[in-house]
Amino acid sequence: MAKGSGKVPSKKASQANVDAFLEKVRLTPVGKKTGRPGRLLFAMDATASRKPTWDMAARIQGEMFQETAALGGLEIQLAYYRGFGEFKAGQWTVEEKVLLRQMTSVFCLAGVTDIERVLAHAINETRERKIDALVFVGDCFEEDIDQVGKAAGELGLMGVPAFMFHEGADPIAGFAFRQIAKLTNGAYCQFDADSAQVLKDLLGAVAVYAAGGHPALEDMARKRGGEVLKLAHQVKGG
Is-contact 85 46, C-beta < 8 A? Predict the structure, then answer.
């Protein structure tokens, strides 16, 4: 449920956010790869205000699998909250069609945020088997920041970075998402509903990072060229 949307980020501000985000990805430590698929928890706010970007993410997510196939693959679990205290997490999957089916079966429903529950779920999943990264996409924050910060800190101690994607310009959400990113040694990036390419690039970057670390991210940039290559040069400080 969105609060005071304010002005959407300008193109210049969005580019600065992309640069800062990818720099943070470069600096985020990643463990030695074991040959297993990278594990990425893909969590989203499915309250009513999120419907346009939910549909956009559903179209984009297939490339997350395609980009990581040569790195040993990517295992993704979709989690979301909506309505009156509803929270759901799907099965872990390495198949694009399964994730797409899960996402397209969900309809957004008015409710309040439940990011603390997302973090608690990530903690429980990591206790079972290590997650390489958490991605969260949302537009507002309506919880106790200290309670959420406690969960974020615990997740950070477990070595799971949270990459927080903030749609719009709500200042309360921006503050909270930055805190969560900091406490987990993750990263924060702001985008707007018209920035499909920005979301696509960043989701792809985190997916590749989860599957193969920094060298894999640079290799993706070399293959794709264009804007991704330019961003990768900035990640390397060039």
Answer: no
| Window from 25-29, 97-101, 116-120 with minimum mean pLDDT | 25-29
CA separation, residue 162 to residues 22, 70, 107, 184, 190 (Å): 13, 24, 24, 6, 14
Domains with residue ranges and CATH for the chain: 38-172+183-222+230-235 (3.40.50.410)
Contact between 21 and 135 under an 8 Å Cβ cutoff? The reply is no
- Among 97, 101, 108, 126, smallest CA distance to 48 is for 108
pTM equals 0.78
- Cα–Cα distance for residue pair 191/154, rounded to 1 Å: 27
User: Which tens digit of pLDDT belongs to each residue from 179-194?
Assistant: 998 898 887 888 876 7
